[in-house]
Amino acid sequence: MRVLQINGMRNKLVAQELRQLVAELQVDVLCIQEPYTMKGKVPFMPIQSRTIAETERPWAALVVINKDLTITKIHQHCDAHFNTVEIATSFGKWRLVNAYFQDCEPIEPYLTKMEEILVSRDTPTILAFDSNARSTWWYDTLTERRGKLMEEAITALNLNVENLPHNPPTFVGRAGAESRVDITLTNSTAVGLVKNWKVMQNATMSDHNAILFEVDRCRAGNPYTRKNNFNIGRANWQLLTAEFELPSPVITGDNVDDKAMELTSSIVKAMNKAIPKSKGGKVNNRIWNDDLTKARRASRKARMHYQRADTEQQRLYLLSEYRRLKACYKEKLNMVRMQSWEGFVKENLTMDVWGMPYKLAVEKIRSTDVISTLQREDGTSTTTREETLGLLMDTLLPDDNPQDDTQEQMVERRKLANQYENSGVVMPFAVEEVECAIRTMKKRKAPGPDAIKAEVLQYLAPQIAPYLCTLLNECLLQGRVPTCWKTAELVILKKGADKDPINPKSYRPICLLNTLGKVQEKLLCKRIKEMRALRGMSDNQYGFSKGRSTEDAINRALHVVENTDAAYIMAIFVDISGAFDNLWWPALFARLRELQTPHCLYKCLKDYCRQRKVNIRGPQRAMTKTTTKGCPQGSVLGPEFWDIALEPILYKMAENPDLADTVAYADDILFLIDGRNRQELESKAARVLSTMNTWCRSVKLKLAPHKTTYMLLKGKLQRDPVVKLDGMSIKRARVTRYLGVLLDESLNFSAHIDDALDRGTKIMNKITSIGQRRFNVPMNCIRTYHNSVLRSMVGYAASVWAHRINLSSVSTKIRRAQRAILLRMTGAFSTTSAEALLVTAGIWPLDLQILESGATYWLKRGNPMKVRTVVDAHVTSRSDVRKVLLDKWQSDWDVCDKGRRVHEVFPDIRERLGCKHLNPNRGLIHYLTGHGPYMSYLHRIKKANNSDCTECGVIGTPEHHLFECRLYEDIKPENAYTLSENQIGHILRDTNLWEVLDKLAYDNSKTAPDRLEHMIIPMTEIAPHTTNQISVRQTRLRTLADITITQPDANIATDANIATGVETHDPQPTRDDSPKLGRQNRRFRPPKRENESWPEYRNRLKVECPTRVGFTTKWSRSSRALALARAKERRTREGSSSTN
User: Fold this and answer.
1) pLDDT at 715 > cutoff 50
2) Which pairing describes strands 623-627 and 487-494: parallel, antiparallel, or unpaired?
């Protein structure tokens, strides 16, 4: 295993070079001091890499490149300056400590922290430090005070210095000063682990040289064999079919465990021959080429010459040459990186809109979470991975302790042990049912311990279904579930980035089940549903029921509020702590007995819960736990079990006179209580919660008082009602999230609309980041993302709140948010109206789409009154709804005073929506709307002094710039003049001609900033220093780029940003030796002339530099008065000083 140690100087260029160095050297772990980070991650690293850093701008960061390494973060030994991890391999475990000692701070606190980390002497530990301490112990030329203190600590802790002599210095300053401040240490039990330690001179542009060493494990161990990971994308399906052989037929009375194992082995044997296994593969850097290698070599050579200069004059000359070559190297690297990313995006989006670029942008592809050591309830912390996993399993998969049983619970447990008899008959499974169960399994899902993926079963279904059907019927007849199908692989996932990593409850257990076992679960679940349909199911449960949704549950609650005669309605939102993980099995089977479940089905379900095991894979061995309660997370039967167990309390609450209604969706339970006054509400709420709490205790569940809330959905009280649960007052919520909808007490849904628009904007900004502020994704992708992602996110539960859109304030708010999103995604100028942009892009207004969703929902439910409330028209079908909304859009488009240029081309919206071939890019949107880099438009928005094209002497209209202007002769196609002779409407409707116009408009907009620069920025009477290239470029961006919104919000950073290194937040201060612009260079303005007064000078600047950086052309009265007052005060001081 290779470890690379380096100080990154917080330099972006160094971070980019580290990506190439990691690929070149095949590094497994990267220890960086002073890293360049973006949102707490080191950019440019491979996607599967894991960054360990305590803050967003840490002093030390540890990056795990090898995804197969098992890493545990030791949280009690991690801070901004220290990273401590435990690395477990098949040959043992050891610790790695990465640290940075700031030279401007005393070294003693760092040494104290090092002593705390090394308290445990038994664990092999390697320490990689930038100590900023010099000592001859690690072969420096001298020993300083910090070095002496470091030597004392090394002696006291019995550490070994792994630095070797005859290596280059680890630090070379700008003036050529050399030192060795980067050191590698090991404790006494890690002696011999570090091999081939060496310093890599000039590996990056950092002042520090990189250190590379290998970790050699020589201890023997018992390696744990990981499951096979088959690469389905490279499967040979014909070979799989040919190699697969069915086991011997199933005969009545056979051992189903043996038959299940034989079937699994036959499938895996065929997979081993026909499907290659996925390998970790080498880390590579596809963007690197020979030109970058030459530029890097030239810049490094120039730096070496500069550092070794003899005279001051020679050093200044070599410094300027080094800076020039370094700037050239940076420019080439950034250009190659962006070209590579753009090609990758366009190639992938052409094949699959939901491919890798989309997944990276919305963070669907993430590196594996690093499990941290955890804190126990008594305040102590775990210290090893085994202790951590044990605490996680005990917390997330609690045990059923019979010693805690009450008398009633003891009776239920004895009933479970007794023999259950029922003469009911269960229909055996048919082959068609088995094939349907296999066909409906989700693809691209992680397999369980059997390593069989759903795609394999689906391809082998014609061969395997009859045999599997016979086996499953034999299992049903015997009341068995094969033992090999009852073992699951446990995966621990963190619930969210904002959760405390040291709290065990911040993680969620996911069970990866055997694929063949999932088929049996689906068929058993089907039989249970059929039985419950005959016996009757609670009408109050909306979760996991076919034809019912969260919208139905919310609308039922609102229907009660709207139609009650009571003066007040209180809603109590009950939270059951760890409901699915704490389901008590005796209560579940007691309910199954009440439902008169057929004997063989009951016995099969009982065997399903018996001796269920979960495993957590490890590098040395698998940790196993036998579960005694709860629903397996990820199983098909889990939700069905919960519904069955919850039914008794739902039936009981339905008969409770204190309740107006009860609405349940899985474990989210809502009680609606009506009353005439506050006292009645309080008394009813107390009785309802007492009943619920009593039932929970009887089935070993707990209510969470701190998460249970209430709100008044009808009526207002001067004093809040006092509602208690277990002696604790539950809180009143003015706004609460229920099934994904923010409910407020006034039921105007303003909070939900704002929240939905905010979440929709964030996700669309992440998708916009695919373009990395350099290009825009194709219009067909934009349209797909808008209709699939934005509409579903903002329009969630539209039937609940769509009627609010009829208010102009709400519809305007939605249109405004949609316009901002489309401006960023399409690259249109920020002055483009929403009306013109929607018609040009062929995208429906979002408010109308939400109205359509709401009306369609109520049409399916057969409620014409609600439909009329939403669309304000009598409709009977979805096509009628669409027609009404299109007519509304068309009438608004005809009377609107904006986007008239687009209206001339597309007066009929239906015709525009029918042009499926028309996917305009940024340039064509600029041309059609007229809001683009055209002199007539730039003059209108005061970005140019006049509207004339100085090259041609005519008004710079969009048509002139596209078809006639001599500035664009080199990009015009041969048939450009042919295009100008046709009407634009005819060109856009032609499936061939429009592409020529589209490319011409795109090239025009892309090159316009450079071609029109001399027309926009006056260059007369500019002082010599103001012709600085950076200042001119800044000014040009101020005039054109700042009115085009193509980048997402500044606070959004996605995996796509981090992978390519494009900053979407304020960049960090970078330690760099490039030339800095002084205050004079940053000001883009001509100097003041002699005998010219300050008012005259300001007036001249307004004319000559209207867009000058750092100068405002429009003075408000207050700012102008303040400036005049300050000038008067300055003149008074100058006069008094001259008099003195």
Assistant:
1) yes
2) unpaired
